[in-house]
Amino acid sequence: MEYRNILVIGLGNPILGDDGVGWRVGEAVQEILNKESMGKASDSQKYKIDIECLAEGGLRLMEIMVGYDYAVIIDAITTHNQPIGSVSCFPIEKMPDLTAGHFASPHNTTLQTALQLGRELNLSLPEKVIIIGIEAKKVYDLSEELTPSIKDSIPQAVHQTIDLLKNLISGSNSQEGKNDIT
């Protein structure tokens, strides 16, 4: 088994209501990894898991991923295709590029575009970027509180993230695409 360097990102803004769910899930995953000693690298382990809670996007988010084999991004998403609080797992390639057809600059680009640019620059970027998305609607409300349906989705998102990490560590891809948004 090869060594795996994994980055988990709880993405969002914790003062914008349901947009903060990625942070909450990331923090809960960190607590579990600490209890299970799963996230700490040791001589006997063939992996290292880092957890970050961020409110970054585009180029800055891509830069943070440099040097990792895999990245798992946990974030609130708004697809209007699922009930609020639904949890989905899918590769970034299946995420809509919301700037397609619109003017975009390097100052305000999507993560997909930033990753493409990073690969063109031969940066050491993750071979896989997997999204754990929590369907949300109230992502612009100035509040540190989550709505009840989003708060109730946290245990499922945490469980799905832990399962995904275990699959990445073991080399299995069985979780990816299980709850695809498309």
Secondary-structure blueprint of this entry?
Elements: E1 4-11, H1 21-36, E2 47-54, H2 58-64, E3 70-77, E4 87-91, H3 111-120, E5 128-135, H4 148-170
Parallel strand pairs: 1-2, 1-3, 3-5
Antiparallel strand pairs: 4-5
Helix pairs in contact: 1-4, 2-3
Task: Provide a descriptive summary of the structure in words.
The protein has about 180 residues and is an alpha/beta fold. About 30% of the residues lie in helices and about 20% in strands. The protein has one domain (about 5-170): HybD-like (Rossmann fold), CATH 3.40.50.1450. It has 4 helices and 5 strands. Helix 1 links the parallel strand 1 (about 5-10) and strand 2 (about 45-55). Mean pLDDT is about 85; it is low at about 100-105 and about 175-180.
Q: Tell me the distance between the termini.
A: 32 Å
Which value, in Å, is the CA radius of gyration? Answer: 16 Å
Find the CATH superfamily: HybD-like
- Number-wise, the strands total 5
Q: Please give the CATH class.
A: Alpha Beta
CATH architecture designation:
3-Layer(aba) Sandwich
The helix/strand order is EHEHEEHEH
- Proportion of beta-strand residues: 15-25%
Point out poorly predicted stretches: 99-104, 174-182
Summed up, the domain count is: 1
Instruction: Characterize the main sheet.
Output: 5 strands, mixed
Query: How much helix is in the residues?
Result: 25-40%
Structural class: alpha/beta
